[in-house]
Amino acid sequence: MKPPPFAYECPTEVADAVALLAAHGADARPLAGGQSLVPLLNFRLARPAVLVDLNRIAALGHVTVENGALRIGAMARQAAVEADPGVARGWPLLTDAISHIAHPQIRNRGTIGGSLAHNDPAAELPAVMLALDAEMTALGPEGTRTVPSGEFFAGTMETALAPDELLTEIRVPELPEGTGWSFREAARRQGDFALVAVAVLLRPSGSSSGIDARVVVTGTGDGPQRMREAEAVLAERGTGGDACEAAGNAAAQASEPADDPHAPAWYRQRLVAALTRRACREAAMRMGR
Ligand SMILES: Cc1cc2nc3c(=O)[nH]c(=O)nc-3n(C[C@H](O)[C@H](O)[C@H](O)COP(=O)(O)OP(=O)(O)OC[C@H]3O[C@@H](n4cnc5c(N)ncnc54)[C@H](O)[C@@H]3O)c2cc1C
Asked: Residue 143: which domain range?
């Protein structure tokens, strides 16, 4: 199908893009890589009167490390971040997770900001940004605000962004030396959306086990879900013995997938248990435990 008619704006400055969104309100939609929005238009699931194309705004394409933190412009292509050696050195969890998104052609166009603003319930990037404690910078007519990832993802294809706000930058804090990480995904075919994916981050800490754990699951609900029970198991017991298995079981119990045409709920729950267990062991190994 062809998209419904729309007016097309192509600003080169962030301020002009924000002014256009403010002028048109909910009738306007930003266009980033178009890998999710264009199919929505073609299926007539979205009918914006105005598309504000962000592709000529050079100021949104950066990938830099500043004072130890990673700063990613919303329009940075997924492929560019995947190939960035600084990202691979400091945030290998992100590099690895991006390689699971669709296919290279889609990652060449698809942007980091587009995926986060879209917040598909089975997408990899929202889960990883939640595990990494990233912060989102939003710019609207009232100015700039920073939204922690824990408050940014608000439900299926919903975020904390207002219709007249642009996501401009993602800031990912530095990881302490000795952090262990793992990203595990099960999909029907390589490049498909995840049936379930799990991001595990184990930071050294002063807790009794010496570990501060983040366990985030995607594919089982309306967005990325922190598995706090699993995190508590790891913080208390560490990763030795059957702790990773217990963390996997805790995550499965806390997940509430529904039956859908791709997989029954019980299967997804088993995936949560198995992938969390494996990710936890791999992260522990990378931590040197
Ligand atoms: C065949 C296929 C397979 C795919 N498989 C996967 C997969 O396995 N995993 C996965 O995560 N994704 C997958 N995708 C989606 C892909 O990752 C998209 O690139 C991503 O979801 C959207 O990024 P985009 O830059 O293309 O954004 P667009 O499609 O241009 O925009 C998506 C939404 O975000 C809004 N938006 C974009 N940028 C901003 C901004 N800066 N501020 C505010 N709002 C903004 C748009 O208005 C729109 O509502 C797949 C896509 C295709 C076509």
From this structure: 62-172
What confidence tens digit (pLDDT) does each residue in 100-142 have? Answer: 999 999 999 999 999 999 999 999 999 999 999 999 999 999 9
Q: Say whether both 168 and 184 belong to one domain.
A: no
Asked if residue 128 and residue 93 are part of one domain, the reply reads: yes
**How many Å lie between the centroid of ligand 1 and the Cα of residue 229?**
31
Domain tally, the chain: 3
CA-nearest residue, atom 37 of ligand 1? 114
* pTM of the predicted protein model: 0.97
- To test the pocket of ligand 1, the residue of 100, 106, 161, 196 to mutate (highest count of ligand atoms within 8 Å of its CB) is 106
Q: pLDDT digit string (tens) for 52-93?
A: 999 999 999 999 999 999 999 999 999 999 999 999 999 999
DSSP-based helix, strand, coil % in the chain, nearest 5: 40, 25, 35
Kind of pairing between the strands at 196-204 and 153-155: unpaired
First-to-last C-alpha distance (Å) of the chain: 54
